[in-house]
């Protein structure tokens, strides 16, 4: 499962870094005084960080839900396969028993 989680982690890391750089670039190219600029950087950086944390948490929750559902479905498929295998074995035994009875 680690291999499946790594690409998602890289995607969200890239998303966070890209978002932060975009906000920073937008602030730096705005014509403001140093004090206003620092205030805006602090404010918008905090907002971007909160948004990123929320997106990351939501993605984690959704990932867990998907994994739980997939696990449940896999268990159900295994039960069905086991049942079909058991039925097939029983039918095979019946056919072999009938074949042996005809030979005798």
How would you describe what is shown here?
The protein has 104 residues and is mostly helical. The chain contains two helices and no strands. It has one domain. The chain is rod-shaped.
Brief account:
With 104 residues, the chain is mostly helical. The protein has two helices and no strands.
SSE pattern, N- to C-terminal: HH
Number of strands: 0
Contiguous low-pLDDT stretches (5 residues minimum) are none
Main β sheet profile? none
Please report which band the strand proportion falls in: under 5%, 5-15%, 15-25%, 25-35%, 35-45% or over 45%. Answer: under 5%
- C-alpha Rg (nearest Å): 30 Å
Task: Give keywords.
mainly alpha, 0% strand, 104 residues, single chain, rod-shaped
Topology (elements, then pairings):
Elements: H1 2-28, H2 34-103
Helix pairs in contact: 1-2
């Amino acid at each position: 499962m680690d291999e499946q989680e790594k690409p998602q982690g890289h995607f969200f890391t890239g998303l966070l870094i890209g978002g932060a750089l975009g906000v920073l670039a937008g602030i730096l190219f705005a014509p403001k005084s140093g004090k206003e600029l620092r205030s805006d950087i602090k404010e918008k950086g905090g907002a971007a960080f909160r948004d990123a944390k929320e997106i990351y948490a939501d993605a984690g929750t959704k990932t867990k839900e998907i994994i739980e559902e997939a696990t449940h479905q896999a268990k159900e498929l295994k039960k069905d396969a086991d049942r079909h295998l058991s039925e097939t074995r029983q039918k095979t035994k019946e056919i072999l028993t009938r074949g042996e009875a005809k030979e005798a």
